[in-house]
Design brief:
InterPro entries: Class-I_Pyr_Nuc-Dis_Oxidored, FAD/NAD-bd_sf, FAD/NAD-binding_dom, FAD/NAD-linked_Rdtase_dimer_sf, Lipoamide_DH, Pyr_nuc-diS_OxRdtase, Pyr_nucl-diS_OxRdtase_dimer, Pyr_OxRdtase_I_AS
Number of domains: 3
CATH class of the largest domain: Alpha Beta
Oligomer: single chain
CATH superfamily of the largest domain: FAD/NAD(P)-binding domain
Binding site for NAD(+): 194-201, 217, 285
CATH architecture of the largest domain: 3-Layer(bba) Sandwich
Distance between the termini: 72 Å
Strand content: 25-35%
Protein name: Dihydrolipoyl dehydrogenase
Shape: globular
Number of strands: 22
Largest sheet: 7 strands, mixed
Number of helices: 13
Subcellular location: Cytoplasm
GO molecular function: dihydrolipoyl dehydrogenase (NADH) activity; flavin adenine dinucleotide binding
CATH topology of the largest domain: FAD/NAD(P)-binding domain
């Protein structure tokens, strides 16, 4: 006899586990299915999805460790601190990262118990629908199967790294994000295909630790999704740090040998070139995890790119089946998935939550950090919307100077007539935290003047946000 629930969530990543917890908080009997062990030595499912196990959390741990190493080698001296013989132990650094992941995975298990969410260990696949119920088969690691039924099923199976044809990823020599988080030594020469978020972050980690890093990018523009002024500044600062970029390239062939990897490619001018390196990271985006869900059994459709088709409320065309996060169109961001998970749980019980997708922030955790929310100047020009903008540098901020972090700026864009904030773009220390003020302001449809007239603590990095708001009306006070 199958178990019956009000809600079954397939996938325990950021969107899935949050959806399950919120559904349980609302009084719904809830189960969450997860089968991916993410390298667990016992083969047990690990909660938290890609983000916690092989993505956001572990990469930030490595970024922090490598940042400390770089500071000790290159920045302590300017603060009057002399350090000699600084070395790095990659294995210990990776072990620290793994301990953080283990702690957070265990934390989700505790939250499931606290909120009475039933964890079903295994992989979920649809069986069919009958009498207003959807049946899902759960296959455990030992091959045993059980059928569960629910009035509502939330698909939250996330995404996986996109691989390139004819480039075999073994996560030893040629790696995607998973392998690049577990290098046991620092490669002398590291190649990266893809200058997106993952490529820049992981390239930065190993560059700080001593690798010579070259990034090959197919697009002719650097960070095309970011505001042009931010992208230009970022490329300049990253090149100053030692990252090398080749834009507008096309990969011809990748060959592995005992001594490493040889990548042949054409540069933006069509010239044939070769990059030899010890290891290669392939970071060319991600694709939705929908392959083994047996969506056909219930009639759920995907588009030409494999994303599940949903309406604005994350409902599929099939009654009682929802989808959130990386499996549906939109930015592949953990916090976007979390918001959708909460919203779907609340819609199931008849509430009317709202997500403003224009207010979803983006962050790249390089040094300096990059963050933005809303429209870029280029997007507004294409839309023909009249705007005004202001910009203020961290180099004119006392707190930034005291932190030895003068690089970058905050740029604010507002409607030319109403002064409503349309976008905020930051490159600089603490951008990932500073952007939250802009998100709140935009959610409340604030004007640039609203931020300009809010009292910010002194000295603080947040004062750069205030000054950027003042700059929109050409009335900065400290420059």
């Amino acid at each position: 006899m199958s178990q019956n629930f009000d809600v079954v969530v397939i996938g325990a990543g950021p969107g899935g586990y949050i959806a399950a917890i919120r559904a349980a908080q609302l009084g719904l009997s809830t189960a969450c299915i997860e089968g991916n062990p993410y390298g667990d030595p016992k083969g047990e499912p690990r909660l938290g999805g890609t983000c916690l196990n092989v993505g956001c959390i572990p990469s930030k741990a490595l970024l922090h460790s490598s940042h400390l190493f770089e500071d000790a080698n290159h920045h302590f001296e300017t603060n009057g601190i002399s350090v000699k013989g600084v070395s790095v132990d990659p294995a210990k650094m990776v072990a620290r990262k793994n301990a953080i992941v283990d702690k957070m995975t265990g934390g989700i298990q505790y939250l499931f118990k606290k909120n009475k969410v039933t964890l079903l260990k295994g992989y979920g696949a649809f069986v069919g629908q009958a009498d207003g119920q959807t049946q899902v088969k759960v296959t455990a690691k030992d091959g045993s199967e059980q059928i569960v039924s629910a009035r509502n099923v939330i698909i939250a199976t996330g995404s996986k790294a996109r691989h390139l044809p004819n480039i075999a990823v073994d996560n030893q020599i040629i790696c995607d994000n998973e392998g690049a988080l577990n290098f046991t030594d620092v490669p002398k020469k590291l190649g990266v295909i893809g200058a997106g978020v993952i490529g820049l972050e992981l390239g930065s980690v190993w560059r700080r630790l001593g690798a010579e890093v070259t990034v090959l990018e197919a697009m002719p523009a650097f960070l095309g999704a970011a505001d042009g002024s931010i992208a230009k500044e970022a490329k300049k600062l990253f090149e100053k740090q030692g990252l090398k970029f080749e834009l507008g390239v096309s990969i011809n062939d990748v060959k592995t040998a005992k001594k490493g990897i040889s990548i042949s490619y054409k540069d933006s001018a069509g010239a044939d070139k070769t990059l030899d390196c010890d290891k290669l990271i392939v970071s060319v985006g991600r694709v939705p995890n929908t392959d083994n869900l047996n969506l056909e059994a219930v009639g759920v459709k995907t588009n030409e790119r494999g994303f599940i088709e949903v309406n604005h409320d994350c409902q599929t065309a099939v009654n009682g089946i929802w989808a959130i996060g990386d499996v549906i169109p939109g930015p592949m961001l953990a916090h976007k998935a979390e918001e959708e998970g909460v919203a779907v749980a609340e819609r199931i019980v008849g509430q009317k939550p709202h997500i403003d997708y224009n207010c979803i922030p983006w962050v790249i955790y390089t040094s300096p950090e990059i963050a933005w929310v809303g429209r870029t100047e280029e997007q507004l020009k294409v839309a023909g919307r009249a705007y005004k903008s202001g910009q203020f540098p961290f180099m004119a901020n006392g707190r930034a100077l005291g932190m030895d972090a003068p690089e970058g700026f905050v740029k604010m864009i507002a409607d030319a007539a109403t002064d409503e904030i349309l976008g905020v773009h930051i490159i600089g220390t603490g951008a990932s935290d500073l952007i939250a003020e802009a998100v709140v302001a935009m959610e409340f449809k604030a004007a640039a003047e609203d931020i300009a007239r809010v009292c910010h603590p002194h000295p603080s990095l947040s004062e750069v946000m205030k000054e950027a708001a003042l700059a929109v009306d050409k009335r900065t006070l400290n420059m």
